[in-house]
Amino acid sequence: MTLPPRKTSVAPMLDWTDRHCRFFHRQISRHTWLYTEMVTTGALIHGDVGRHLDFNEVEHPVALQLGGSEPADLAHCAKLGEQWGYDEINLNCGCPSERVQKGAFGACLMKETPLVSDCVKAMRDAVTIDVTVKHRIGIDNIDSYDFVRDFIGDIGEAGCSTFIVHARTAILKGLSPKENREIPPLHYDVVYRLKQDFPDFEIILNGGITTTAEIDTHLQHVDGVMIGRAAYHNPWLMMSFDSRYYGDSTPPKSRKDVLDALMPYMEKQLSLYGKDAGGGLKLHSMTRHILGLMASEPGARRFRQILSDPKHLAIGDPALLMEAVNAMPSL
C-alpha cells in the first residue's frame, strides 16, 4: 500500500477518536491520517487486544498511539500494532494528565530523553513501519528552544524521523489537560525553527488550528499539520483536504453521502456488537461522533437534538439517523 504524506492528520484524542469516529472521518477525507486514542502498553499486555486494536480497513492510513515507558513492553505492543495492520506507531510524549504521569509516561517523558531513545530504538527494532513521537515544545519551566531541539536531535539518533510537535509547553502541576490545551501560549515559531534546524526530519505541527487558512500558512514552514478538536466539533472542515492538500480530483462527498455511508455501518456494528448480539455497543457510541457534521447549517440544532434524544437512542434503531437527515432542510 502506498501511503499518502502526512500533510493533514487528526490528533489522537482520548474518548473521542475511537474506531467509530475514525470510520466517520474517513468518509469525509480519503487521505488525512487518522490516529487512535492513546492505548497503554498495560491495556494491550493484560487486556483484550482485539477490543483495543480492531479497526475497519477503510480507516487507512491509520496510526496506533501507544502510551508507555518500558522499552520491551512498547516493542511488544508496537509489534502487535504492526500485526494488526496499522500504518504507524506513535509514542505519546505529550499528554500532561496526572493519570498518565502516574504511569511515568506522556509529557513527563520529555525529561527522560535517554529513556525515550531506548523506547524508540526498541520499537524500531521490532517493526518495519514508521515509529513517530508526539511531544510538546517544553515541560514546566524547561521551555528553552535548546531543550526541545536537543530532545529531537537525540531521539532522531535512535531512529525516529517524524515528530508531531504540539506548539505549547506542558504544565504538569496546577493545570488540567483541558487547561494545558488552552492556557500555555502557542509558539508556532518554535516548530518552524525546528524544521529549519532538522530539514531531513518530518515535522508536523499541532495545537490550536481551526481553519484551512491556518493550515495553508503552517504548510509553508512545516511538513504537515495535525488538527484536534476542530476536526471533532466541525468535521466538515476536512471536506476540502483531499483536493486542497493531496491533489485528489475525485468529487468530495456531500454531507448526505457521508450519512448514507454511516447507516449500513451502524447496522452492521450493532448486529455484531450490540446488546442483541451479546455485546455492549450502543447506538449512542456511534451517533455521538457526528453531532458536529451539520455545524452552521440551517437545522443543525434539530439534527443534534434528534441524535441526542435518550429515548430514541435507547431503542437502538439506526433509522434514527435518517430521521435526523429528514429534519435538515438543506439535504
* Rg calc: 20 Å
Spatial sequence of strands, sheet with the most strands: 1-2-4-5-6-7-8-9
**What is the CATH fold-level name of the largest domain?**
TIM Barrel
The total count of strands amounts to 9
Number of domains: 2
Any descriptors?
2 domains, 331 residues, 8-stranded parallel beta barrel, 9 strands, 44% helix, single chain, TIM Barrel, alpha/beta
Description:
The radius of gyration is 20 Å and the shape is globular. It is of the alpha/beta class and 331 residues long. The chain is built from 17 helices and 9 strands. The chain folds into 2 domains: 8-246, Aldolase class I (TIM Barrel, Alpha-Beta Barrel); 255-326, no CATH class. It is 44% helix and 15% strand. Its EC number is 1.3.1.91.
Chain-wise SSE layout:
Elements: E1 8-10, H1 19-28, E2 33-35, E3 39-40, H2 41-46, H3 49-53, E4 62-67, H4 71-84, E5 88-93, H5 98-102, H6 113-126, E6 130-139, H7 145-157, E7 162-170, H8 177-180, H9 188-197, E8 202-206, H10 212-218, E9 224-227, H11 229-233, H12 241-246, H13 255-273, H14 284-287, H15 300-308, H16 310-315, H17 319-326
Parallel strand pairs: 1-2, 1-9, 2-4, 3-4, 4-5, 5-6, 6-7, 7-8, 8-9
Helix pairs in contact: 1-13, 4-6, 6-7, 13-17, 15-17
Binding site for FMN: 12-14, 65, 134, 166, 206-208, 228-229
Site (Interacts with tRNA): 92, 178, 181, 301, 304
Active site: 95 (proton donor)
